[in-house]
């Protein structure tokens, strides 16, 4: 059975719910659902590493952090469930999506054998030599931790800087 | 932090002691922790790696915080210990990279560990060590964010 269309409808529905729900708690739960849908999209697109990250970070950790953040907010009064639409903002968003959609035609088909990624010499080199050169079976990890380890050091330092930056902003020396 | 504040209107209660949640977390957390380590180490041969594994390990801390209260958890971890662990993670990653340079190779060229020190499969162990330290950095940063965001409820202007 074709899984893409129901999945797309699920993700779009969750994204829409995140945008229009008036209750912040509801919006956060909808956002976690959206992340879960996106994680499944990554798996469908054969990118399990990214899917795992999306599921753990998007659906898991950020949801908990958001829930902690809204602890000081209050529920909006009134019976309305859906936020009143902001037409100028909606217009700008639709315009932006329209501009981005124009690039859609330039993308290759999903699973197409002649995409730039699959035909590139670099990819072929990694797939052929990763195991003999760095002794790991997951080519993604081989690129991440060996061939382009310096980039990964940069990524790890970005995470570190996020923590340190938070401490600097709060003017504290420890996370408390 | 748990003393009753004089103004109860702005008080935020985001910890509810629940025996069900406590029992569940007590049973589930060792498995989640092991799964996080598995993702970290087995990332070399299957999807996963330090970033994903680190997040999963951090969720153990989040679960413990939700089940047993964040303030007791923060005291148990130790506020400065968390910053120390975070810095040690970055320093250890750097040390592996610089260490291979010191042995005469390129940055993170693990192969020289095997040729210079005679440790077999040094490349694989090196990658796993790097994944572990990435996991340490990610897990301690997320735990730190968790603690810092929670601490925000105690001070600042509350309506």
TrEMBL record, chain A:
It is found in: Cell membrane. Residues 119-168 form the MrpA C-terminal/MbhE domain. This is DUF4040 domain-containing protein. Residues 10-73 form the MrpA C-terminal/MbhD domain. Pfam families: MbhD (PF13244), MbhE (PF20501). One of its GO terms (cellular component) is plasma membrane. It comes from the Archaea. InterPro entries: CPA3_Na-H_Antiporter_A, MrpA_C/MbhD, MrpA_C/MbhE, Nuo/plastoQ_OxRdtase_6_NuoJ. It is a multi-pass membrane protein. NCBIfam families: PRK12504.1 (NF009159). Keywords: Cell membrane, Membrane, Transmembrane, Transmembrane helix, Transport. The keyword Transmembrane helix applies. The keyword Nucleotide-binding does not apply. The chain crosses the membrane at residues 27-45, 52-71, 87-107.
UniProtKB/TrEMBL annotation, chain B:
Residues 20-143 form the Na+/H+ antiporter MnhB subunit-related protein domain. The chain crosses the membrane at residues 20-41, 53-70, 82-108, 129-149. InterPro entries: CPA3_antiporter_subunitB, MnhB. GO terms for cellular component: plasma membrane. It is found in: Cell membrane. Keywords: Cell membrane, Membrane, Transmembrane, Transmembrane helix. It comes from the Archaea. It is a multi-pass membrane protein. PANTHER family: NA(+)/H(+) ANTIPORTER SUBUNIT B, NA(+)_H(+) ANTIPORTER SUBUNIT B. This is Cation:proton antiporter. The lineage of its organism: Archaea, Methanobacteriati, Methanobacteriota, Stenosarchaea group, Halobacteria.
């Amino acid at each position: 059975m074709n899984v893409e269309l129901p999945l797309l409808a699920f993700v779009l529905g969750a994204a829409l719910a995140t945008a229009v729900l008036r209750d912040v708690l509801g919006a956060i739960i909808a956002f976690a659902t959206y992340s879960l849908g996106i994680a499944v999209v990554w798996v469908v697109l054969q990118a399990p590493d990214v899917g795992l990250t999306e599921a753990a970070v998007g659906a898991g950790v950020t949801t908990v952090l958001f829930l902690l953040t809204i602890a000081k907010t209050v529920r909006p009064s009134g019976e309305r469930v859906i936020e009143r639409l902001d037409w100028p903002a909606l217009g700008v968003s639709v315009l932006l999506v329209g501009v981005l959609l124009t690039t859609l035609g330039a993308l290759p088909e999903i699973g197409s054998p002649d995409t730039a990624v699959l035909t590139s010499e670099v990819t072929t080199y990694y797939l052929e030599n990763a195991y003999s050169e760095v002794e790991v079976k997951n080519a993604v990890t081989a690129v991440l931790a060996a061939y382009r380890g310096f980039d990964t050091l940069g990524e790890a330092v970005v995470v570190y800087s996020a923590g340190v930056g938070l401490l600097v902003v709060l003017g504290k020396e420890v996370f408390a | 932090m748990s003393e009753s504040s004089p103004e109860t209107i702005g008080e935020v209660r985001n910890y509810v002691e629940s025996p069900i949640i406590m029992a569940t977390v007590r049973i589930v957390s060792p498995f989640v922790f092991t799964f996080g380590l598995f993702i970290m180490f087995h990332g070399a041969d299957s999807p996963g790696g330090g970033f994903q594994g680190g997040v999963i390990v951090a969720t153990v801390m989040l679960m413990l915080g939700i089940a047993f209260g964040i303030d007791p958890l923060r005291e148990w971890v130790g506020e400065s210990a968390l910053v120390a662990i975070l810095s040690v993670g970055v320093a250890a990653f750097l040390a592996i990279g610089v260490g291979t340079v010191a042995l005469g190779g390129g940055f993170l060229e693990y192969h020289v560990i095997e040729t210079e020190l005679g440790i077999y499969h040094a490349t694989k162990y090196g990658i796993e060590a790097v994944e572990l330290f990435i996991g340490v950095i990610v897990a301690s940063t997320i735990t730190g964010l968790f603690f810092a965001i929670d601490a925000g409820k105690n001070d600042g202007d509350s309506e």
